[in-house]
Amino acid sequence: QVQLVESGGGLVQPGESLRLSCAASGINFSIFTMGWYRQAPGNERELVAFIRSDRSTYYTFSVKGRFTISRDNAKNTVYLQMSSLKPEDTAVYYCNAVRLGDDYWGQGTQVTVSS
């Protein structure tokens, strides 16, 4: 059974940082592309960042220079370090694992940026 379990969300003030974690089980983690998506109320789910098995990365424009995605294959975990958070970063953040025809999602973790 595949599980992706996110953690690390919470309420922070603008300018602060958070680190999200996603622990995977039931997959050969090292060969999957791991991604973070987010969905704000009333909006569609959007891609935030992903990291391939070769550790190459992609970031959506709005988070470049502020967010960093990384992976620890020994721990089957992907991280999203978020810095200089803005109110518009408020959303439910979802972890995703994808490879060829396999596509898995976590349950999401809430990030709220508010003063």
Give the SSE layout.
Elements: E1 3-7, E2 10-12, E3 18-25, E4 33-39, E5 46-51, E6 57-59, E7 67-72, E8 77-82, E9 91-99, E10 102-105, E11 109-113
Parallel strand pairs: 2-11
Antiparallel strand pairs: 1-3, 3-8, 4-5, 4-9, 5-6, 7-8, 9-10, 9-11
What's the assembly state of these chains? single chain
Which whole number gives the mean pLDDT? 97
Helix coverage percent: under 10%
Note poorly predicted spans.
none
Spell out the helices and strands N to C: EEEEEEEEEEE
Biggest β-sheet strands, sense, barrel: 7 strands, mixed
- First-residue to last-residue Cα separation: 40 Å
Give the overall form: globular
Strand content: over 45%
Count of DSSP-assigned helices: 0
- What's the alpha carbon Rg, rounded to whole Å? 13 Å
Q: What does this 3D model show about the protein?
A:
This protein is an all-beta fold. Strands 2, 4, 5, 6, 9, 10 and 11 form a 7-stranded mixed beta sheet that branches. It is globular and about 40 Å long.
Give a short synopsis of this structure.
With 115 residues, this protein is mainly β.
